[in-house]
Automatic annotation (TrEMBL):
SUPFAM superfamilies: S-adenosyl-L-methionine-dependent methyltransferases. One of its GO terms (molecular function) is S-adenosylmethionine-dependent methyltransferase activity. The keyword Methyltransferase applies. Pfam families: Methyltransf_11 (PF08241). One of its GO terms (biological process) is methylation. The lineage of its organism: Bacteria, Bacillati, Actinomycetota, Actinomycetes, Propionibacteriales. Keywords: Methyltransferase, Transferase. This is Methyltransferase family protein. Residues 59-146 form the Methyltransferase type domain. InterPro entries: Methyltransf_11 (IPR013216), SAM-dependent_MTases_sf (IPR029063).
């Protein structure tokens, strides 16, 4: 279910991000458009785990405004296909990176079975109630034995009052889900913490410009509230960001 908090966080902020990058320059696009995956070290871990290589068709499910897929295209020469249900985020991804975007839900991927070489799904499963439906669809469209790279916000205990629209899985639930949906978990690691200053500076400049323009907008207030609640949960140790490499059985 799409909630007002999710629309503010994923759609309104995506449109504002594209606008801010238009002013600050293309060098800001990838750091600012990585929402949820954030660090280049995390993306590099996923790319190496999935053995990305030039020409691979990489499906990014819940691609947001496209930063991770654009990073993979630039660094590894993959051919991304973005899938994102929020219309303004889809437009932002297309405007920022000129990549093909399917505006669709991960529970109904408009692609043929066995048609993509590798898939990413970063920061998405915790925003979806029916996680199995998304994972089964990804499984359907991947070629046999293909890799799936996941970034998942995992809860260390059941969270009674999560930010609007979030459903954080426990580690045991995540492992069971992957298995039930036809994936073998190959490896998992906690997200590497270090982010180079050059990357975080560009992301923060975009954030500052958005704040200067939109801080009185109701969607800005809503998105900030979501962020604050999420950060509190991370600070308390209730949540962690996990990177996973799984393979289609
Ligand atoms: C935290 S953002 C991460 C965006 C991007 N993957 C990244 O790492 O920068 C979560 C994204 O999941 C998308 N999303 C939510 N529900 C979805 C669904 N059912 N199918 C596909 N994407 C979904 C949201 O619209 C949002 O863009």
């Amino acid at each position: 279910m799409t909630t007002p908090g999710m629309v503010a966080e994923f759609d309104d902020v995506a449109a504002w991000t594209a606008e801010a990058v238009g002013q600050l320059g293309d060098g800001h696009a990838i750091p600012a458009a990585c929402r949820g995956s954030a660090s280049p070290a995390a993306l590099a871990w996923l790319a190496e785990a999935c053995e990305l290589s030039a020409g691979d068709r990489l499906l990014d499910v819940g691609a947001g405004s496209g930063g991770p897929a654009a990073w993979a295209a630039k660094r590894f020469g993959v051919r991304p296909i973005l899938l994102e249900p929020m219309p303004a985020a889809s437009r932002a991804a297309s405007k920022l990176f000129g990549l093909p975007v399917l505006t669709a839900d991960g529970q109904r991927i408009p692609l043929r079975a066995d048609s993509v070489d590798v898939a990413w799904c970063l920061g998405v499963l915790c925003t979806v109630e029916d996680k199995a439906a998304v994972l089964r669809e990804i499984h359907r469209v991947l070629v046999p034995h293909a890799s799936l790279g996941l970034l998942v916000v995992v809860a260390s205990r059941p969270i009674a009052d999560p930010p609007d629209g979030n459903h954080f899985p426990l580690q045991s639930e995540l492992v069971d889900l992957l298995d039930t949906c036809g994936f073998d978990l190959v490896e998992q690691t906690e997200r590497p913490a270090a982010v180079p200053l050059s990357w975080s500076r560009r992301a923060q400049e975009v954030t500052a410009l958005i704040s200067a323009r939109y801080r009185t907008h109701p969607a800005y207030t809503l998105a900030s509230r979501q962020d604050t609640r999420l950060n509190d949960l991370f600070d308390n140790g209730d949540l962690s960001l996990q990177l996973l490499h799984a393979m289609k059985r």
